[in-house]
Structures are given as C-alpha cells and as structure tokens.
Design brief:
By secondary structure, the protein is mostly helical. It has 19 helices and no strands. Keywords: Cell membrane, Membrane, Transmembrane, Transmembrane helix, Transport.
C-alpha cells in the first residue's frame, strides 16, 4: 500500500512508458543487474568445494548450509524490497543493497572458519534480494504492459549471463591459482561498480508506476487479463496482508506462479550446492566443474532473450508448464548419464527449461497485479521463489547424507516435473488482452 510520503512524479511532468521511451535507463539497469549476477556467480563452482577441501566439512548438509542462509535471507529481503519500493521508492533500496554487498568477497577471502562463509552469504542474500528485486521492479515500471516479457527476458539474461561468466571465470582462476583468494577478487570490482552506477546514474522510476495506474484507471473498470485483474478502486489499495494472501494462495494463477518459482529455485539450489560435488565425485577437474556450472546459467541467460519476448506473443501459461516439465526431465537424466559430454547435454536442457520459466513467471505476476501494489506482489512472489533455495539445500543435503547424491538428484527432478503438472492444473493465461498503453 503506497505511502503519501512516497516520492511522486505526476503524469503532467512528461512521464512516458515503453522500452523505446526509456531505453537509456533500461540499459543502465540491465548493466547494474549484470553486476548483481556476477556477485553470486563467483560462488557457484567454488564454495561447495571450499567447504570440503579448505574447511574439512564431511556432511553434505553442512556444506550446503551457506545456500540455506543465502536463500532464507534473500527471500525475506525480496519481501522487504517489494513493500519498501512501493512506500518510499526504488533507488534508495537499490543503493542499500549494494552497500550491504560490499564486504562479501572480502569475508570469503579472509574467512578463518566456515561460519564466516555462512555470514558472507547472509550479506549476499540481502544484496541479491534488494538489488535484483529492485532492478526487476524498475524495469517493469519503465516498459509498461506491452513488453513485460521482453523486459524480463533482457533483465534475467543479463543477470544470469553474468552468473555464467563469473562461474566459469572463478573455476578457471581456482584451477590456475587456488580456491582463494583469486576467484573472489572480481567480486570487489562488481560491488563497487554496481554501487557507483546506482548512486550516480540510476533515476527513480516510481512515477512511471503511478502514471500506468492513472492510465489503467481510465479504462473504466475493464478486466485486463484472464486472471481477473480489475481497476476497481478497492483493488488498487489492498492491505499487505491481502496482497500476501492473493499472491500466495487465494488467486489460483498467482499460486501456480509462486509454487513454480519456489520449485524452480529449489532445483537451482541443488545445482549450485550439489552438482559440483556430484561432478567432482565423477572424476571431473575443477576447470570442468566450473565450465558445467557456467553452461547451465549461460544457456538460461542467453535463451531468455528469446523466451521473454516470445511469452508476449504466445502467452505465459504454456511456457511455464513446459519449462518446469523440461527441467524435471533434465535433472532426472543427470544421474543416468556419465561423462563430461553427456553432462553438458543435461545442463543445456536444464538451462533451456529454466529460460522458458524464469522471465515468464515475473511477467505473469506483473500481468495480474495492479500497478499500485505490483512491487509488493513481486516481493511476495520472490519470497516464495527464493525460499526454494532453503528447501532445496536442506532437502538435497539430507537426502544426499541418508541415501546418496543420486537419490537426492532424482527426487528433486521428480518434484520439478510435478510442479509443471500442478501449474497446468491451476493457472489461467495472463497475457494482457487489453493493451491500454502502446510501447
């Protein structure tokens, strides 16, 4: 629920929606999000091995504790970022996120115990939650309804393309030098660059959301999507409790989106924490592990340049369902195959499945939520989505300790497939049929 003290930018000041009208700020936010992705990418191929080899952790659950701390804090930071962005604006939240992220690489470089690494990932979770959520919200603000899928595809492509490149670079640096400090040195530059760009060049976008809300109100209560979005004034200013319940459970489509997001990041937590250990047990070198850790987000990031825009034409539901089913199949195939080349195939399929889902889920949330409370709805969705890291790391660790890594991978693959089946059963198509703003 917006505060009367929030920064205002009335339509009379010349605010325009659309990618073309706001391309400079949009590109700047794409670059900022690339630095956000680079921060987390440095960890994806190295930190699980660091836990085993540098700190002597024998339990898989203990090794994956850094993902649990990251996911729990990031989920809560997403919720905080969405609500705060609706109340006080976007830019300040973005800057705070970068300030919190500055110490992360230094803490890992100088860590004398595993607790330091876990604490570094608490800060990283806050950084990722505040910064990534805010860049998503700001891009949605700028482009309006007609190109949401494209906007989210570009945003996620930049973020996860950077995750991929950073993971590959960290694997190369670790293979060439050591597990510390060289792989984490680029993180210092990422954090400083993201902070400076956000402070100096990024502009507040809250006024664009208000402008869209004004234009939406002029449609005199017409329903915009199959998910029953309405312009009735009572829907414009729901309480946070109502937003939380709508996004989490009451609206069947938003529930379908939220559960798919949770399971998507549940299997991403598996990929981040368990795949490096699985590949190492299969005899691969650190450089090969780093390459595999980079291929999955690399395909995911690159393909989103197509899938996000495609959802603006074909619709959201089919791509979400198909993407979850493909992810489940790819994960299930992984323990059935052996060797670097076959594992590359599995990682490519997993990346393609994730690319179908990731920008489309955000676009679907934006289709349904009213502009006045959209940032809060995105925050609630991202709360559930990133809770998947916690659940995935905990489930994968327990299953791996009790039954072995192969069983852990197989169970999570099955859960991912079932999530696609559930999305098919409960979701409605959300692609806007009434384009009240031309972008």
């Amino acid at each position: 629920m917006p505060s009367p003290n929030a920064p205002s930018l009335p339509p009379s000041t010349g605010v325009r929606l659309g990618l073309r009208a706001n391309w400079q700020q949009f590109i700047l936010l794409v670059i900022v999000n690339a630095f956000v992705g680079g921060m987390v990418g440095l960890e994806r191929s190295i930190v699980p091995l660091l836990g085993q080899r540098a700190f002597g952790l024998a339990s898989t659950t203990a090794v994956l504790s850094f993902i649990m701390s990251f996911g729990m804090v990031k989920a809560l930071a997403n919720l905080f970022a969405g609500g705060l962005s609706d109340r006080v604006g976007r830019k300040g939240v973005l800057v705070i996120g970068w300030l919190v992220g500055l110490p992360v690489p230094l803490l890992i470089i100088f860590a004398t115990s595993w607790g330091w690494v876990v604490f570094a990932n608490v800060l990283l979770g806050i950084n990722q939650g505040l910064c990534w959520s805010t860049t998503v919200i700001m891009k949605i603000d700028l482009v309006g309804p007609a190109r949401r899928g494209l906007a989210m595809g570009l945003n996620e492509a930049a973020g996860y393309g950077a995750v991929s490149l950073a993971a590959i670079a960290a694997g190369y640096l670790a293979a060439t030098y050591a597990l510390r400090p060289q792989p984490f040195l680029p993180g210092i530059g990422f954090a400083l660059a993201g902070l400076l760009l956000s402070l100096v060049l990024v502009r507040e976008s809250h006024g664009h959301a208000r402008h869209e809300a004004t234009l939406l109100a002029q449609t005199t209560g017409q329903t915009e999507t199959g998910a029953q979005r309405t312009t009735d004034s009572s829907a414009d200013h729901p309480s946070f409790k109502d937003i939380f319940l709508l996004t989490s459970w009451k609206n069947r489509t938003l529930f379908g989106v939220s559960q798919a997001g949770l399971v998507n990041n549940l299997n991403d937590g598996l990929a981040w924490g368990l795949f490096p250990l699985f590949f190492a047990a299969g005899g691969l070198s650190i450089a090969q592990i780093g390459l595999l850790a980079g291929i999955y987000p690399g395909v995911w990031g690159t393909a989103q340049l197509v899938t996000g825009a495609l959802s603006d034409r074909l619709g959201r539901k089919g791509m979400i369902v198909g993407g979850m089913l493909l992810q489940g199949i790819a994960i299930g195939l992984l323990p059935l195959m052996h060797g670097f080349a076959w594992w590359v195939v599995a990682m490519v399929l997993l990346g393609l499945g994730t690319a179908l889902v990731y920008p489309t889920l955000l676009a679907a949330i934006s289709d349904v939520a009213h502009p006045q409370w959209r940032a809060s709805a995105v925050g609630v969705y991202r709360l559930w989505r990133d809770s998947g890291y916690v659940i995935g790391a905990l489930l994968a660790g327990i299953l791996a300790d009790l039954l072995g890594v192969t069983w852990a991978i197989g169970v999570i693959g099955a859960l991912t497939f079932l999530s696609g089946v559930l999305a098919q059963a409960v979701m409605s198509e959300t692609l806007p049929r009434l384009q009240y703003i031309q972008s």
